[in-house]
Amino acid sequence: MGRITLDKVSKSFGAVEVIPPLDLTIEDGEFVVFVGPSGCGKSTLLRLIAGLEDVSGGQIRVDGQDATTVPPAKRGLAMVFQSYALYPHMSVRKNIAFPLRMAGLDAAEQERRVTEAAKVLNLSDYLDRRPGQLSGGQRQRVAIGRAIVREPAAFLFDEPLSNLDAALRVGMRLEISELHERLKTTMIYVTHDQVEAMTMADKIVVLHAGRIEQVGSPLELYRTPKNLFVAGFIGSPKMNFLTGPEADRHGAHTIGIRPEHIKVSNDESCIWRGTVGVSEHLGSDTFFHIHMEGQDTPLTVRAGGDVELYHGDAICMTPDEAHIHRFDANGLRTD
Amino acid sequence: MARAVTPQRKAINTTLAWAVGLLIFFPILWTILTSFKTEAQAINDPPLFLFFDWTLENYSVVQERSDYMRFLWNSVIIAVGSTILGVLIAVPAAWSMAFVPSRRTKDILLWMLSTKMLPAVGVLYPIYLLFIKLGLLDSRVGLVVVLMLINLPIIVWMLYTYFKEIPGEILEAARMDGAGLREEILYVLTPMAVPGIASTMLLNVILAWNEAFWTLNLTAAKAAPLTAFIASYSSPEGLFYAKLSAASTMAIAPILILGWFSQKQLVRGLTFGAVK
């Protein structure tokens, strides 16, 4: 079981309040991703749950039990760090067995669990190596192994893939998702990468300046962002925002439209006109950055890979009216 | 950035390094050579380098006249004792400074180092008087304490630098893995810091072994270490270069051998943290 409840949890460092009181419930077995720009307090929030930082106020409950002042080791949570944080002087086997040794399990049981975890994580051939002799991906798997042998109530991941290169990151992302499918244990995952958040999460918590901006499933956040921040943060490339007459026409202060919801064409029967600035041809897709009169920032438009338009071409755009997001002067969604 | 090293350049560098090395080592070499000469040969003009009648006489005379083993034993106790005591005090200190620093930690470290800038003779009288009052004059306990205090700032600094290099996340990982403070120190931190602690101890043993100001001023006979043993051959009885050299060689031999075998460790210890 691993249901974690935060009740008016807050954190200040001296006079600086990094997390104003917030409430959040993480259901048992859920994969929750905390996402936000750097400095938004997502890692601090994770460390509060882990017990590595003391809360300044509020209560943390794990499976209904007050864990606010319980030391990290006694909370039944396992953590995977960005830097892997392996014990460099111990072999892989001893690294994975360390939490079991601390729990006082007998040697046979330790060995059984280490072997099992190593099999799951493809580490069986490396058990006698030191962390220094492993690649980044293998080190990360050892760190995960050290977490799973404990059979914790929940896993906490603190930007675990940031130190890996792009290709490895995609692979590990899948492995972690598969691990969650298999173990069905609660996982809390911190990242600044919204792609990781979108692809892995059951539930995303978008944080900004220590506040929760929105909580929801990836598609909920994508389809109905509650405010300008979430609208701009979730989705890649970013949502386009327009103000002025175009927004007024839709009865809003700001309207937002995603790159994939704008159609480009050469005909004259369109609503928006502009000239192509940069075009990025990815093969499968093409992204156009289009300068529109009356707008300071260029619009990003996503088109098929076969659309060939180049710098300086005049272009015609038709937004999909059903996918226009409307925001008021405070940046809040109006519909 | 790699710079091209031509063979000529390499040869010049090697020669220079050897020249500097020999220059530094020469006084020690000369002392050792002199210890094997007769008194007359020792003051011969021009000086004799290798071609003289090698003799062990000086060593037997020195051994006859003074009990080398007693001095040696005092040196060992004082050097090792002050080192162990110093490390016992410095480990927790450096620990808390590295992992739970306060706003004043940096100031405290600098203040500790600043005490090393005070000329030792400036506190000779207060310490001498204290030693008389406490009955510590000419006692090994007294010297162990004084030398420990003299070198403590360096020990704390070195250990602090070492501990700083240990990533805090590893300790946090240990905490998450269920380790209490005791297990964290025993199974994670200490094994990781062993090289640092070892080279700190090594350096401190050498510093304490060679310390002459306090050992000469605070001892007479009972607790006198090898520094006093050398000094006893220096002045009043006239010029006995060969015997003085023999005494010096006997005094520095143990630490020279220790340094020789542990030079790798020492260099690593002294440059640790300087380059990444």
TrEMBL record, chain A:
Which part of the chain is the ABC transporter domain? 4-234
Does the record's keyword annotation contain Zinc? no
Q: Pfam families given for it? A: ABC_tran, TOBE_2
- Entry-linked Gene3D superfamilies: 2.40.50.100, Nucleic acid-binding proteins, P-loop containing nucleotide triphosphate hydrolases
Which SUPFAM superfamilies does the UniProt record give? MOP-like (SSF50331), P-loop containing nucleoside triphosphate hydrolases (SSF52540)
Q: Name one GO molecular function term.
A: ATP binding
Which keywords accompany this UniProt record? Answer: ATP-binding, Nucleotide-binding, Sugar transport, Transport
Domain of life (superkingdom): Bacteria
**What does the sequence similarity comment in the record state about its family?**
Belongs to the ABC transporter superfamily.
> What name goes with this protein?
Multiple sugar transport system ATP-binding protein
Give the source species.
Answer: Rhodovulum iodosum
Q: What is the lineage of its organism?
A: Bacteria, Pseudomonadati, Pseudomonadota, Alphaproteobacteria, Rhodobacterales
Automatic annotation (TrEMBL), chain B:
Q: Where are the bilayer-spanning segments?
A: 12-33, 71-96, 108-131, 143-163, 184-209, 240-261
Q: Does the keyword Transport apply?
A: yes
List the keywords (alphabetical): Cell membrane, Membrane, Transmembrane, Transmembrane helix, Transport
InterPro entries in the record: BP-dep_ABC_trans_perm, MetI-like, MetI-like_sf
Q: Name one Pfam family in it.
A: BPD_transp_1
Q: What is its main location?
A: membrane
Compartments in which it is found = Cell membrane
Q: Does Membrane count among this protein's keywords?
A: yes
Which family would the database say this protein is a member of?
A: Belongs to the binding-protein-dependent transport system permease family.
- The identity of this protein, by name, is Sorbitol/mannitol transport system permease protein
What is the source species? Rhodovulum iodosum
| UniProt lineage | Bacteria, Pseudomonadati, Pseudomonadota, Alphaproteobacteria, Rhodobacterales
